[in-house]
């Protein structure tokens, strides 16, 4: 039968794409009806019988018998002479059913029909894929590295679906090889033409939140709520948690004994340092907790400008600011306030600054050299003689001069 080869190709699509039988039959009928409309002008008088499981298909054309002298034949009509070639006892007015072979449609129509079918099945597949991943946007997903490119990593899941992990959605310390299993959150699904592009992210705050749900049963069960997450991916994060049950310590439950519960999350995020704090509606207290590990003396809030002055003892300032300003930046993001650090009891005469506060401008090993001889503040160094410092440390005089220039600018400002 001429139809078998075409049907067999449809069955291959069915196996590859896991299209259910009803959907496949609907696609097949739609494709054939379009071909019939092009050939005959209408498909109203055609019956299509498809059995894709057996690789069998039949097309039957129904027409009414009319007199031979009816020269203006419609698609739904057949002359008496033509009808009697099918069966000799037909009469005018009776209905004739005749099977239509694919070959009757013409070679070009058959090729177009096959191409149309392939297109329809891919369209169906893409629509299903789009819906499938739209439903899990914001959820954690795992896939295998298929190809690593400079600006993107292409992943493939167990069903062969392609997922894109752009460079800007990767943690800075991430390093992938072909075959690696990668976990991230499905951030978005975008249609590129008719094909869905699935975007994964490992830098999203949602990824960290979902990891908490996976690793901490109380969060998964809803006993502990994650109120807000802020991150500098791969470096540091702060997570505010709360619980309606006073018997539960939300921070302790999230961190676990000696950090046992949070360790897996930290490892997944490239050793990102995670601070977990108790959420509160008291803005002043929330700011105090957000600046941990620094101990805040007091907070003065201006609600109108959404700014807050945070007063700290000198030895707490560097802790509040953190390396590269990360701690205070995240605290500001978490609380929603612009934070200004005020050193307690500071004045033009007695104000001093810990040397570690200059870590953005002075290398750590240089700061360590000064610390070895008991010099850990700006003024303690500025009081020294350059030549004497060069003798007591492993530093060159030019290096010491540059350090002093940086320190002097602090007090000039």
TrEMBL record:
GO terms for biological process: DNA-templated transcription termination; transcription antitermination. Keywords: Cytoplasm, RNA-binding, Transcription, Transcription antitermination, Transcription regulation, Transcription termination. It is found in: Cytoplasm. Residues 202-279 form the Transcription factor NusA first KH domain. One of its GO terms (cellular component) is cytosol. Residues 6-125 form the Transcription factor NusA N-terminal domain. GO terms for molecular function: DNA-binding transcription factor activity; RNA binding. Coiled coil: none annotated. Residues 286-346 form the NusA-like second KH domain. SUPFAM superfamilies: Nucleic acid-binding proteins (SSF50249), Prokaryotic type KH domain (KH-domain type II) (SSF54814), Transcription factor NusA, N-terminal domain (SSF69705). PROSITE patterns: KH_TYPE_1. The keyword Hydrolase does not apply. NCBIfam families: NusA. Monomer. Binds directly to the core enzyme of the DNA-dependent RNA polymerase and to nascent RNA. Participates in both transcription termination and antitermination. This is Transcription termination/antitermination protein NusA. It comes from Flavobacterium aciduliphilum.
């Amino acid at each position: 039968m001429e139809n078998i080869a075409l049907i067999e190709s449809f069955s291959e699509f069915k196996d590859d794409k896991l299209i259910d039988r009803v959907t496949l039959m609907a696609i097949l009928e739609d494709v054939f009806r379009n071909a019939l409309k092009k050939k005959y002008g209408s498909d109203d008088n055609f019956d299509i019988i498809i059995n894709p499981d057996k690789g069998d298909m039949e097309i039957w054309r129904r027409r009414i018998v009319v007199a031979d002298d009816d020269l203006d034949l419609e698609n739904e009509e057949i002359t008496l002479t033509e009808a009697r070639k099918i069966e000799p006892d037909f009469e005018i007015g009776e209905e004739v059913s005749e099977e239509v072979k694919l070959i009757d449609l013409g070679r070009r129509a058959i090729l177009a029909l096959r191409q149309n079918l392939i297109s329809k099945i891919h369209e169906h597949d893409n629509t299903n894929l789009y819906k499938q991943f739209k439903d899990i946007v914001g959820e954690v997903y795992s896939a295998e590295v298929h190809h690593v490119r400079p600006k993107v990593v292409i992943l493939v899941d167990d069903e062969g679906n392609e997922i894109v992990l752009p460079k800007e959605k990767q943690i800075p310390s991430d390093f992938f090889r072909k075959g690696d299993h990668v976990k991230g959150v499905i951030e978005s699904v975008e249609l590129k033409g008719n094909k869905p592009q699935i975007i994964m992210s490992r830098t999203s705050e949602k990824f960290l939140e979902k990891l908490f749900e996976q690793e901490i049963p109380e969060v998964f069960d809803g006993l502990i709520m994650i109120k807000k997450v802020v991150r500098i991916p791969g470096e540091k994060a702060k997570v505010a948690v709360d619980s309606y049950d006073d018997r539960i310590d939300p921070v302790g439950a999230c961190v676990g004994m000696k950090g046992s519960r949070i360790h897996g999350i930290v490892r997944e995020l490239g050793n990102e340092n995670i601070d977990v704090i108790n959420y509160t509606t008291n803005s002043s207290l929330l700011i105090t907790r957000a600046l941990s590990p620094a101990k805040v003396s007091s907070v003065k809030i201006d609600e109108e400008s959404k700014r807050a002055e945070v007063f700290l003892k000198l030895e707490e300032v560097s802790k509040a600011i953190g390396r590269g300003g990360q701690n205070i930046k995240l605290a500001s993001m978490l609380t929603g306030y612009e934070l200004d650090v005020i050193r307690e009891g500071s004045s033009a005469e007695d104000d001093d600054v810990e040397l570690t506060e200059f870590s953005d401008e002075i290398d750590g090993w240089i700061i360590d050299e000064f610390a070895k001889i008991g010099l850990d503040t700006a003024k303690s160094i500025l009081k020294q003689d350059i030549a004497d410092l060069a003798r007591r440390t492993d530093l060159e005089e030019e290096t010491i001069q540059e350090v002093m220039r940086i320190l002097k600018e602090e007090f000039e400002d």
